[in-house]
Amino acid sequence: MRAQFVLSEIGVGLRRNLTMTFAVVVSVALSLALFGGSLLMSDQVNTMKGYWYDKVNVSIFLCNKSDAESDPKCAKGAVTADQKKQILADLDKMTVVENVSYESSDQAYKHYKEQFGDSPLASSLTPDQMQESYRIKLKDPEKYRVIATAFNGRDGVQSVQDQKGILDNLFGLLNGMNWAARAVMAMMLVVALMLIVNTVRVSAFSRRRETGIMRLVGASGFYIQAPFIMEAAVAGLIGGGVACGFLLIARYFIIDHGLALSEKLNLINFIGWDAVLTKLPLILATSLLMPALAAFFALRKYLKV
């Protein structure tokens, strides 16, 4: 009988405040969709880091004749055969190095033509203007400075470049976007909480006679509060379900179909469905508990029971 009464009161409350209930559902859905999206963005960035950091190289570019005439770092002339042998020997001795590959000026010219053949500059370049280089795969990409310290400024070395630095800029941008999404999510959560509290108070005010009678006949505080708390929880749970639907639809249309980024951007290792599905229980639990707790604390002061 009590359960039936509570359920009937939930339906009455939701119908009485239909507009505000709809606003709660929408605000909860948007805020939790942003919450889930920010979690997935973090997973995506971590997945990309693991994928790309494992492939980055440190490049030691060697001086050529053109550099000897224009670059102060190569003032002692183009790299010699003995200098190249010494660089390679020193690299072989370093424990942080996994493997080393050599790229000649002809190979560098060929690769440049393959990538930038349509560039106006490509037609004016010749193989002897391209730099020879050693491409070094490190066991730990974070150990770049070991290579830079050992070879920067050495005779025959024009520069030491770390591809990880380029990726760090990209991941910094992605992390910045993620934090911006979290800031918007936080504001939306505040709006949702304010709407929930306001909706509960309006509902409690509209039924103040019924709650007064229930207090007079000795009803417990929880029994009086339960319908209002459940109303907020049901509205939040509906919003959480909508947020889950947003995430599933976004994953389906953005990555797999529609935009089909997984097909167009083959170089990016996108997160799978398992990453999305593992976030849904957290979103649903948050959508249920957040409104219920907000309603509970709002009612404690408002109903004074």
Produce the secondary structure layout.
Layout (H helix, E strand, L loop, with lengths): L1 H15 L1 H36 L4 E5 L2 H6 L10 H13 L3 E7 L1 H12 L16 E6 L5 H8 L5 E6 H44 L1 H9 L4 H36 L4 H4 L8 H30 L3
Antiparallel strand pairs: 1-3, 1-4, 2-3
How would you characterize the overall build of this protein?
It is a multi-pass membrane protein. Part of the ABC transporter FtsEX involved in cellular division. Keywords: Cell cycle, Cell division, Cell membrane, Membrane, Transmembrane, Transmembrane helix. Belongs to the ABC-4 integral membrane protein family. FtsX subfamily. It is found in: Cell membrane. With 305 residues, the chain is α+β, with helices and mostly antiparallel strands. The protein contains eleven helices and four strands. A four-stranded antiparallel β-sheet has the order 2-3-1-4. Helix 2 packs antiparallel against helix 7. The model has no long low-confidence stretch (mean pLDDT 79).
Summarize the structure.
By secondary structure, this protein is an alpha+beta fold. It has helices at residues 2-16, 18-53, 65-70, 81-93, 105-116, 144-151, 163-206, 208-216, 221-256, 261-264, 273-302, and strands at 58-62, 97-103, 133-138, 157-162.
Radius of gyration: 31 Å
The pLDDT mean sits at: 79
Give, in spatial order, the strands making up the sheet with the most strands.
2-3-1-4
Class per helix and strand makeup: alpha+beta
Percentage of β-strand residues = 5-15%
| Principal-axis shape | elongated
Number of distinct beta strands: 4
Order of helices and strands: HHEHHEHEHEHHHHH
